[in-house]
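FORM 12-B: Structure-to-Sequence Request
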């Protein structure tokens, strides 16, 4: 971070976001503790993440298995209570690596992945929680299961595949009102009987909290602009 001294620090921004989550929870008449802040650290290296860990934060999200493998084993070794969430698409040939490193996989979206992850959880004996990603906007380029198929898929994961699905996750289309998608995910979550809803990012996490988000995934508002490349 070349101009680090020019901008607010990540730990300061973390505090701000935590405060805003508290405010949004109060407005929604919810307990702030019912909302988990997943700090999305993709593209940021260990030296940017470490201050946030040292400030006491423990829940982080990454969207690529390979990138996470490059930084998190060391960071986790120093802080075994860290909870790492996979929030990007998973290929079945990476299921073993994902189960070895992540504590929650939020992007289960098809049978093949559900089976591969369930098998790896069994083989490795790791407690990994899972969420099903729902493509609430039915966008062609986006992963996630169709909303119409979500309830049956969650049931199949639990009853036939033996995958412990505890939540639903969505990424609303950029050009649509996010609240419509949050409301849909909330409705589907109730229909599935899951306890977690992962929705809301830097631009709209407060709105997601009004619709029952239990996990908000916030990157830019904590770590600043991403190093693209
Ligand atoms: C990058 C990412 C986020 C965080 O986005 P910000 O707008 O930087 O908060 C949240 N969810 C997913 C799935 C992401 O890939």
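FORM 12-B RESPONSE
SEQUENCE OUT:
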């Amino acid at each position: 971070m070349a101009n680090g001294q020019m901008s607010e620090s990540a730990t300061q921004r973390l505090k701000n976001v935590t405060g805003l989550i508290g405010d949004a929870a109060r407005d929604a008449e919810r307990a702030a503790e019912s909302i988990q802040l997943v700090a999305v650290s993709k593209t940021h290296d260990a030296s940017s993440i470490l201050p946030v860990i040292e400030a006491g934060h423990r829940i982080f999200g990454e969207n690529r298995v390979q990138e996470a493998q490059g930084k998190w084993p060391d960071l986790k070794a120093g802080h075994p209570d860290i909870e790492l969430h996979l929030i990007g698409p998973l290929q079945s040939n990476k299921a073993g690596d994902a189960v070895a490193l992540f504590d929650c996989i939020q992007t289960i979206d098809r049978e093949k992945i559900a089976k591969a992850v369930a098998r790896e959880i069994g083989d490795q004996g790791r407690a990994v929680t899972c969420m099903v990603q729902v493509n609430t906007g039915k966008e062609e380029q986006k992963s996630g299961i169709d909303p119409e198929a979500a309830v049956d898929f969650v049931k199949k994961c639990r009853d036939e595949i033996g995958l412990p699905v505890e939540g639903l996750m969505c990424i609303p289309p950029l050009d649509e009102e996010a609240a419509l998608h949050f409301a849909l995910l909330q409705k589907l979550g109730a229909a599935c009987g899951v306890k977690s809803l992962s929705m809301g990012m830097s631009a709209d996490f407060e709105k997601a909290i009004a619709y029952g988000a239990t996990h908000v995934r916030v990157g830019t508002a904590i770590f600043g602009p991403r190093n693209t490349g």
